[in-house]
Amino acid sequence: MTLDDLIAEYREEAHDSGTPPFVSDAWLTKRANQAEQEVCRRSGLLIESVHAMCTVAVTAGNPVVSLNSKIIDIKKARMSLDAVFLLPASVNNLCATWEADTGTPSHYITDYQSGAIRLYPVPVVDDDLKLTVTRLPLVGMSAGTDEPEIRAEYHDALVQWLLHRAYAKQDIDIFDPHKSARALAEFEREFGTRSSARNEHWMRARHVLDAAPIA
């Protein structure tokens, strides 16, 4: 479905095709992009290994690697010069002197710096970090012919998010909390419920509280 198709489907379902309509195309475009982002956060449907964001230059002596803001979570990571996958770790599982250790990275620390990971130990040669990640859409839809990045069989369910948000508007002409809740339930049946920001952060950090300290 194109963006135009999503908007037309919403208008048919909501009986919102009058002049003027209850909600504008611009408003619906924003919510359509929001819907796809929700899908990616909830279901991790966009998996990436070949985009430039998945190859990050690493400089000897600098263990902090900035991540593209589109990355939601890291599924796999390895150094280009090493065939072994790096293991995720938390600062809670490292010994007191871990920041001084150097060598070939074996782990990546997920809760060291926002928007980045910290390699352990500190790399001693220049290399590339190769990633497989889940991510947000690369570019938002704006033209009517634009399509969501997620697979076509999931497009119909995106309309439920538009209905949910439209019926939740504090507007006497369209506000209907029961219809809003019903549309959200349909959306969540397809894509799952939303985790809180706190839980998402915890999952990305992969805290293993009972693990033995590394090194």
Give a topology summary:
Blueprint: H1 3-14, H2 25-43, E1 47-48, E2 55-58, E3 64-66, E4 71-79, E5 87-89, E6 102-103, E7 107-113, E8 116-120, E9 122-123, E10 127-135, H3 155-167, H4 177-191, H5 197-205
Parallel strand pairs: 5-7, 6-9
Antiparallel strand pairs: 1-10, 2-10, 3-8, 4-10, 7-8
Helix pairs in contact: 1-3, 2-3, 3-4
Q: Would you list the SSEs in sequence order as H and E?
A: HHEEEEEEEEEEHHH
Which sheet architecture does the biggest sheet show?
4 strands, antiparallel
Give the proportion of residues in helices: 25-40%
| Residues in β-strands, percent | 15-25%
Mean pLDDT: 93
How far is it from the N-terminal to the C-terminal residue, by CA? Answer: 52 Å
Number of DSSP strands? 10
Radius of gyration from the alpha-carbon trace, in angstroms = 22 Å
SS field, number of helical segments: 5
Low-confidence stretches: 207-212
Structural class, judged by helices and strands? alpha+beta
Question: What is the total domain count?
Answer: 2
Apparent shape: elongated
Structure, described:
The longest helix is centred in the first third of the chain and has 19 residues, at 25-43. 32% of the residues lie in helices and 21% in strands. The protein is built from 5 helices and 10 strands. Strand 7 and strand 8 form a beta hairpin. The strands form 3 sheets. Strands 1, 2, 4 and 10 form a 4-stranded antiparallel sheet that branches. By secondary structure, it is of the alpha+beta class. It has 2 domains: 3-44 and 139-198, no CATH class; 47-135, no CATH class. Helix 1 (3-14) packs across helix 3 (155-167) and helix 3 packs antiparallel against helix 4.
